[in-house]
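User: Let's play a game. I give you a shape written as tokens, and you guess the letters that built it. Ready? Here's round one.
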């Protein structure tokens, strides 16, 4: 058995720990979105594969027998490429997918189909917006330059941002509610824009928004191919035939 773990989430890091504990021959793959990725207890590669054809070549060259897709729920391109490459090579594939966030009593959430739709959901009058979407899609909001945007990024932006009124906080999650309450209050935030990524690492901002009565605009997840989905690490380890190891402190 040789496993390729497609990572980039906190769940992927936990998955890597479980594989290492089980002594499963594995390699961890980062897309290379951040300058200082979290170290993993597995051999690690960083960077893209070169599309479906490149991933097919990699699977064959490295004699990969199983693929675990533990990428971000919005990393649709990688998930689609993994599905296509695994189909072509007949490589078993499972997606470790954390549940989406669900609104609770007191939440003021607006759901929109795509990240692009979040722009139109913002008001026309100037607002103070916590843009909790990462760095790749900041340019979408250049069509509403009247707002003041707060960005929380893992790495400092390279070059000028396409938004005239912006504050940048450099920080790596997970975040707690007290931190996010202070962040929202210190920056006088009136609206939050986020992806419905799910998970605990970035959930604190939603709890803080609930406590402050702030509206949240959430982009729905993209549709992904494949039906073999696991909600937790134990299910993935059982799929690999190592279900007992998954219980050891992961």
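Assistant: Ready! My guess for every position:
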């Amino acid at each position: 058995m040789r496993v390729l773990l497609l990572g980039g989430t906190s769940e992927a890091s936990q998955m890597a720990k479980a594989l290492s504990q089980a002594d499963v021959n594995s390699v961890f793959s980062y897309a290379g979105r951040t300058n200082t990725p979290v170290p993993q207890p597995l051999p690690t590669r960083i960077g893209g594969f070169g599309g479906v054809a490149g991933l097919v070549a990699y699977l064959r060259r490295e004699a990969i027998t199983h693929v675990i897709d533990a990428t971000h729920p919005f990393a649709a391109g990688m998930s689609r490429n993994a599905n296509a490459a695994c189909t072509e090579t007949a490589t078993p594939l499972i997606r470790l997918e954390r549940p989406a966030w669900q609104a609770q009593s007191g939440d003021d959430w607006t759901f929109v189909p795509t990240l692009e739709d979040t722009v139109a959901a913002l008001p026309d009058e100037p607002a103070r917006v916590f843009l909790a979407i990462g760095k790749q899609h900041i340019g979408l909001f250049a069509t509403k330059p009247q707002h003041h945007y707060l960005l929380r990024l893992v790495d400092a932006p390279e070059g000028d941002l396409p938004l005239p009124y912006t504050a940048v906080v450099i920080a790596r999650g997970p975040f707690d509610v007290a931190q996010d309450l202070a962040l929202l209050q210190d920056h006088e935030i009136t609206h939050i824009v986020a992806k419905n990524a799910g998970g605990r690492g970035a959930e604190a901002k939603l709890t803080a928004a609930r406590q402050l009565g702030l509206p949240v605009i959430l982009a729905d997840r993209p549709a992904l191919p494949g039906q073999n989905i696991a909600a937790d690490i134990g299910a993935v380890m059982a799929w690999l035939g190592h279900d007992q190891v998954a219980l050891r402190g992961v």
